[in-house]
Amino acid sequence: MAFYNLLSFFPLVLFILSGARFSVRGLSMGYYGMRCPFAENIVKNTVNDALQADPTLAAGLLRMHFHDCFIEGCDGSVLLDSTKDNKAEKDSPANLSLRGYEIIDDAKEQIEKQCPGVVSCADILAMAARDAVFWAGGPVYGIPKGRKDGTRSKIEDTRNLPPPFFNSSELITMFGQHGFSVQEMVVLSGGHTLGVARCSSFKNRLSKFDSTRDVDPTLDSDIATKLIKTCNAGDNAEAPFDETRNSFDNSYFNALQSKAGLLSSDQTLFTSPRTRNIVNGYAMNQARFFFDFQQAMVKMGLLDVKEGKKGEVRLNCRQIN
Ligand code: HEM
Ligand SMILES: *[C@@H]1O[C@H](CO)[C@@H](O)[C@H](O)[C@H]1NC(C)=O
Ligand SMILES: *[C@@H]1O[C@H](CO)[C@@H](O)[C@H](O)[C@H]1NC(C)=O
Where does Ca(2+) 2 bind (predicted)? Predict the structure, then answer.
């Protein structure tokens, strides 16, 4: 009997432990509840207004948060502008056409008016990415808050971002270094259900632009023909990852099944026996994709967060205080 009682408390104990883990890091779901009660609403309304005007920016916000977290942790470093003496992450060629900075600036300005010096840029970006996913039709989920902003943003750190020509083993290794499982790497790649890539990111797969190799055999030949046409317009011409670039859905995984993945790093997830079944699972079951995606996003949002005195709350997201 006593044993059963203990067991029935087990979920509660786990819950308390996981809560404690967050608060050890200084993060919690209700972090701004007392400190700045409207912060979360301001971000949501700002994101909704901006996406109403330009739905393609949902992709920009999601990608910006990913880049922020993979370089030096989720500390808003991706938002910093270069200065006279420092070339910031932003100015890397890998910066990749990051988009949506104005939305963060706008939310920050409104929040500063209500609660000066309280809400970090890293948190605003994390909330904005979350709201963008929901706006585009994806899952809704809560994220712990209380990140502080970092003071370092170096162009050379961007080499920690995965390049588009990585194969699945290389992706597994790189995401593994950040503590992600194979399944989490695949589900996070599902972020490519939103947005576009430029020809410079995928022309390696089109023989016309790279005479050292034939058209990538894992790319459908009709699609290759179409992409070559697109890329005749130059390196900055864009192609969508899937047929619904502004909808957060599982059509990205369906595209991989029909050899329509855009980047090498997308298609490799289906080509490789190590990840193919995971792709098939998400292609078949969108609810499963949504569920795993939100969990992996919460985890990504906790990468090397700076809490307490390890960082600051920037007054302007583009420069350190
Ligand atoms: C798995 C490794 C990944 C690689 C190699 C990769 C690479 C890329 C590349 C090359 C682009 C296009 C850049 C351009 O040509 O302008 C891109 C776009 C994008 N990435 Fe990733 N990415 C990866 C993972 C992720 C993750 C984990 C997320 C978010 C959860 C994400 C979200 C996005 C989004 C939303 C876009 C579209 C941006 C837009 O339309 O403005 N990516 N990615
Ligand atoms: C990205 O990097 C290129 C240089 O490689 C630069 O010209 C461009 O302005 C940068 N984009 C952003 C948004 O900073
Ligand atoms: C992935 O790329 C690495 C480095 O180029 C190579 O050693 C490895 O064999 C490749 N793996 C697969 C499965 O193609």
Answer: 193, 242, 244, 249
